[in-house]
């Protein structure tokens, strides 16, 4: 097929190339056309983000009457619902929670351009951390529309939307208009003045600069007050809200809007940098490889790493445990002999499907506990029974306390059987017992002893990162999603405080 024939095959009766028609109707196709080097099919998370942004703009994130959760529907599905006059609610609030350097802010600026191409009547207010970043975001949107075509090999905005232009003489950095409009766009820093204009789309992009600000209660309170008193007052009826930010703290802006009475009004798009730590599957290996992921993890504070790359807000302020004792070497005598008196274990089996098993092996010396090994996992019991038995054999555990609640007694019998059948060992005395005391009360009442008398190896955040995070982030005064780590650690404290007379040798 010749070049001319090939071109004719790609246009319809209107004479418009197929790729242009697709870009008019699809934000993802538009993104690929404008910047094919960045927006690629090998980066599916960017397609998911583009499709979600388009869906909220087109009222295609919905829930039927009586439903609790939002779901994204296709254009055809929405058309069918509308033709059948089916009642449904369309979501207008989107929270985006994606790792840094994965294209979320750039995707938002592209979204703004595409929206203006689709509907010049739209008005946007975009809020970023400060005026400098607000200006940069504004320029990206404005320059995307004004881009001049200098090479036929590349596509620019006006190739797709030839009737949309910036108003001549009205293209200031922070505030500008499209032709035929009094106001189209305002960019400002968080806490800035927004007067005289309203918007059909309000965007807040990364309002928190770093972890220091994320745990500054005064700043978080001030941001939320500005959001409720100023930003919300600028939103027109049926306006779209988009908050794009790294989650640091349950009291950050997204945390608050998701915890208030209107929490059900929000659709949350959340992605983690690493999809599977066992298979090393990454969200986008082109933007963050497994090797780079591990390097960042080794150099960053784990709580900050988890917030940035796994969207797990970590509240350091209000954490129950404010300090931990750490050791470089186990207690030794002058000849270099280890002074540990006994090796013991405390095991809290998983209560429910989303709970973690936590088995802690520790040595005792002079009334202090030295943590030697931790198994902290949500794998099923068929695997954890073997892991625990192997650990008991390896560490020469003499006494193991295993909570008998919720299948713990059967777990204890299985561990004993594996030790006997696979390791030929009856060295470990396994004691299963029922734990009936209030879990949270136990954890809080033993917190001081845990902080003063339980010693963790210096590199415990790297050895047992999930357990470390569970201990570091456990909140003193609010409901915690998981308490398995603090619960088992409290068990160690309780057994230690019973005194040596209660141990069997």
Largest pleated sheet: 8 strands, mixed
What is the gyration radius calculated from CA atoms?
29 Å
Return residue spans where pLDDT drops below 50 for at least 5 consecutive residues.
Answer: 1-9, 500-505
Widest β-sheet, arrangement of strands: 6-7-8-5-9-10-4-11
Structural class: alpha/beta
Provide the residue-averaged pLDDT.
89
In short, what is this structure?
Helix content is 39%, strand content 21%.
Describe this structure in words.
It is a single chain. The longest helix is centred in the first third of the chain and has 16 residues, at 131-146. This protein is of the alpha/beta class and 505 residues long. The chain is elongated, with a radius of gyration of 29 Å. An eight-stranded mixed sheet has the order 6-7-8-5-9-10-4-11. Strands 14-20-17-16-15-18-19 form a seven-stranded mixed sheet, with helices on both faces. Helices cover 39% and strands 21% of the residues. It starts with a helix and ends in an 8-residue tail after the last helix. It has helices at 3-9, 18-25, 27-34, 44-57, 75-83, 104-118, 131-146, 157-160, 211-214, 217-231, 253-257, 290-299, 302-310, 381-395, 408-423, 439-445, 447-453, 460-463, 465-473, 484-497; strands at 61-64, 71-72, 88-90, 93-97, 124-128, 166-171, 175-178, 185-189, 199-205, 235-244, 266-270, 274-276, 281-282, 325-327, 342-348, 357-365, 368-377, 399-403, 429-433, 454-457. Residues 1-9 and 500-505 have low confidence and may be disordered. 36% of the residues are buried. Helix 2 packs across helix 3 (27-34), helix 6 (104-118) crosses helix 7 (131-146) and helix 14 crosses helix 15.
């Amino acid at each position: 097929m010749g070049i001319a024939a090939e071109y004719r095959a790609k246009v319809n009766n209107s004479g418009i190339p197929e790729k242009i028609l697709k870009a008019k109707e699809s934000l993802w196709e538009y993104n690929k056309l404008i910047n094919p080097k960045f927006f690629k099919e090998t980066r599916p998370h960017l397609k998911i983000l583009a499709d979600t942004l388009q869906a909220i703009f087109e009222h295609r994130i919905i829930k039927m009457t009586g439903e609790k959760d939002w779901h994204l529907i296709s254009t055809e599905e929405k058309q069918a619902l509308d033709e059948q006059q089916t009642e449904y609610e369309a979501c207008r609030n989107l929270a985006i929670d994606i790792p840094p350097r994965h294209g979320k802010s750039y995707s938002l600026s592209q979204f703004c351009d595409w929206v203006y191409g689709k509907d010049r009547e739209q008005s946007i207010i975009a809020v970023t951390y400060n005026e400098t970043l607000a200006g940069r975001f504004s320029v990206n949107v404005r320059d995307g529309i004004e881009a001049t075509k200098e090479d036929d090999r590349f596509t620019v905005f006006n190739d797709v939307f030839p009737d949309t232009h910036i108003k001549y003489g009205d293209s200031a950095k922070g505030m500008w208009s499209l032709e035929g409009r009094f106001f189209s766009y305002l960019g400002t820093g968080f806490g800035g003045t927004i007067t005289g204009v309203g918007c059909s789309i309000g965007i807040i992009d990364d309002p928190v600069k770093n972890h220091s600000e994320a745990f500054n209660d005064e700043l978080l309170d001030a941001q939320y007050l500005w959001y409720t008193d100023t930003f919300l007052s600028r939103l027109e009826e049926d306006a779209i809200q988009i908050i794009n930010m790294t989650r640091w703290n349950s009291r950050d802006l997204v945390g608050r809007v998701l915890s208030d009475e209107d929490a059900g009004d929000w659709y949350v798009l959340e992605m983690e940098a690493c999809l599977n730590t066992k298979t090393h599957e990454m969200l986008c290996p082109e933007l963050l490889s497994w090797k780079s992921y591990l390097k960042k993890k080794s150099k960053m504070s784990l709580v900050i790493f988890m917030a940035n790359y796994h969207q797990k807000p970590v509240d350091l302020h209000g954490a129950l445990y404010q300090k931990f004792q750490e050791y470089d070497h186990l207690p030794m005598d002058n000849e270099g002999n280890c002074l540990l008196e006994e090796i013991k274990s405390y095991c809290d089996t998983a209560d429910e499907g989303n709970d973690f098993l936590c088995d802690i092996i520790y040595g005792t010396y002079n009334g202090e506990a030295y943590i030697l090994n931790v198994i902290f996992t949500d794998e099923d019991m068929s695997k954890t029974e073997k892991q625990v038995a192997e650990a008991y054999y390896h560490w020469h555990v003499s006494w193991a306390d295993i909570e008998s609640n919720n299948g713990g007694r059967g777990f204890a019998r299985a561990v004993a059987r594996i030790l006997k059948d696979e390791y030929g060992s009856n060295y470990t005395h396994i004691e299963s017992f029922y734990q009936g005391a209030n879990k949270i009360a136990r954890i809080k009442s033993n917190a001081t002893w845990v902080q003063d008398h339980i010693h963790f190896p210096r590199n415990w955040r790297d050895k047992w990162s999930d357990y470390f995070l569970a201990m570091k982030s456990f909140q003193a005064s609010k409901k915690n999603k998981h308490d398995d780590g603090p619960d088992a650690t409290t068990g160690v404290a309780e057994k230690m405080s019973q005194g040596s007379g209660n141990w069997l040798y």
